[in-house]
Amino acid sequence: MKNKEERSSVPRHIVLFPDGNRRWARERGLDTLKGHKAGYENLLKFREWCQERGVKALTAFGFSTENWNRTEKEVSYLMKLLETGLVRHFKRYLKEEELKRLGVRVRVIGQIDRLPKSLQKVISEVEEGTKGNDTFFLNLAISYGGRWDIVQAAQRAMREGVSPDELTEERFASYLSTSGLPDPDLVIRAGGEMRFSNFVLWQAAYAELFFEPKYWPDFTEEDLDRVLAEYARRQRRFGE
């Protein structure tokens, strides 16, 4: 739990549900895959907007453990979209000085071993190449589920022989995939849905929630400012 002196009008860590990509495409008579591409491109801009406003970390829901049940065509497209996106937009951090100065550390959280081998290789390269950056933290949740995260954390603790008396909330959190980051302050879900969809269930216990009716590809910089203004007006009590 946060101390009062740690609280700020600007969230340190934002969790994003970039939802509504397929519905956005359908309403425009487009292939739903075009919606995923538009959503990914908007996510790249959103990361920039967040960093410019002093946010320190962003965790974005990209592909859930349940999404493996979608069609093979859609799953394959999403995997390739992530792979090419990492290469084009984040692998450059390893080479271009201007991008290095932004100090973005990229991490993919989830069941990495389920992903295509070529994607695993790119993820490894990007994570290794950006691990020294500490200005902004970008987590991409791929083949991720909140229940999976809790179970794998418990399994890791048991493998290390942690006794029940030693397993505090703080120690348990150190085994979660988001270890090392502050708990989310703000959760934004676009697309009009109002649920957590099995995402960061432990971590977001005290996060402020904001549900945006717009589909994610239509979410703008002005919308982010509106959400941040609402966040700043809220009085956070953390159960006190």
Give a structural overview.
With 240 residues, the protein is an alpha/beta fold. The chain has one domain (10-233): Decaprenyl diphosphate synthase-like (Undecaprenyl pyrophosphate synthetase, 3-Layer(aba) Sandwich), CATH 3.40.1180. The protein has helices at residues 21-27, 32-52, 72-90, 97-100, 117-130, 146-159, 169-173, 221-233; strands spanning 13-17, 57-64, 104-109, 136-144, 186-189, 208-211. The chain has a six-stranded parallel β-sheet, with helices on both faces. Strand 3 (104-109), helix 5 (117-130) and strand 4 (136-144) form a beta-alpha-beta unit. The radius of gyration is 18 Å and the shape is globular.
Topology:
Layout: E1 13-17, H1 21-27, H2 32-52, E2 57-64, H3 72-90, H4 97-100, E3 104-109, H5 117-130, E4 136-144, H6 146-159, H7 169-173, E5 186-189, E6 208-211, H8 221-233
Parallel strand pairs: 1-2, 1-5, 2-4, 3-4, 5-6
Helix pairs in contact: 1-2, 2-3, 3-5
Q: What is this structure, in a nutshell?
A:
It is built from eight helices and six strands. It has 240 residues and is α/β, with parallel strands linked by helices.
